[in-house]
Amino acid sequence: MKKLQSTLVNMVLVLGIIAIVAATLLAWVNQLTAEPIRLAEVAKQQTAIKEVTPAFDAVGKIISYTDETGQNINCYPVLNQNKCVGIAVESYSNAGFNGYIQVMVGFDMNGNIVNYSVLKQAETPGLGTKMVDWFKTDKAAQSILGKNPAKGLRVSKDGGEIDAITAATISSRAFLDAVNRAYTYYQKSLDAVQTAQN
């Protein structure tokens, strides 16, 4: 077998073939994994809805909004015997120490926070990542559970009543920003749910 000469044309040809094969393999792997990833995200979302809302037997029609930045906010009314007992709101903040934070916040019909679940975050391990449990802990003034954010939730450093995560005030502010945004869309969806039930 004759060896290819080391010319510019031959090198470009070989590199082009390698690039085409690599791109084809990457596209195939992406297509192969896209559906399982989507199904895993849906399952995580459904688990979060169950975790953050009062007991229910069905999820009502999803109410979707687009906020001022073009981001989708989804609200999930939960029903017990065809009566709405709470609403889970998928919210976010871009103000985290490392950017994007996504949460699911559950409200009862009076606007009180039932629970929350952190869906996505890339905060500093051991600091900002504590938001997963920090704001559920019944210690000092950490917990947001049972609170009604009608007037907005803020960390104590900003004159609020919630203790920030130690050494992670930026992450705490971003988390509460996401919760406050969730409450805004909870109120909007509450009007739609009450109109539909009347």
Question: How would you explain this protein's 3D organization?
Answer:
The protein has helices at 8-52, 131-134, 169-197, and strands at 58-59, 63-66, 72-80, 83-96, 99-108, 113-120. It is 39% helix and 24% strand. By secondary structure, the chain is α+β, with helices and mostly antiparallel strands. Strands 1, 2, 3, 4, 5 and 6 form a 6-stranded antiparallel beta sheet that branches. The protein has one domain (52-197). The protein is built from 3 helices and 6 strands. Strand 3 (72-80) and strand 4 (83-96) form a beta hairpin. The model has no long low-confidence stretch (mean pLDDT 91).
Task: Give a topology summary.
Layout (H helix, E strand, L loop, with lengths): L7 H45 L5 E2 L3 E4 L5 E9 L2 E14 L2 E10 L4 E8 L10 H4 L34 H29 L1
Antiparallel strand pairs: 1-3, 2-3, 3-4, 4-5, 5-6
What's the mean pLDDT score? 91
Order of helices and strands: HEEEEEEHH
Helix and strand content put the structural class at alpha+beta
Domain count: the total is 1
Major beta-sheet overview: 6 strands, antiparallel
Q: What radius of gyration results from the CA coordinates?
A: 23 Å
Low-confidence stretches: none
Q: In angstroms, what separates the terminal alpha carbons?
A: 82 Å
- State the helicity in percent bands: 25-40%
Strand content: 15-25%
The tally of strands reads 6
Number of helices: 3
Gross morphology: elongated
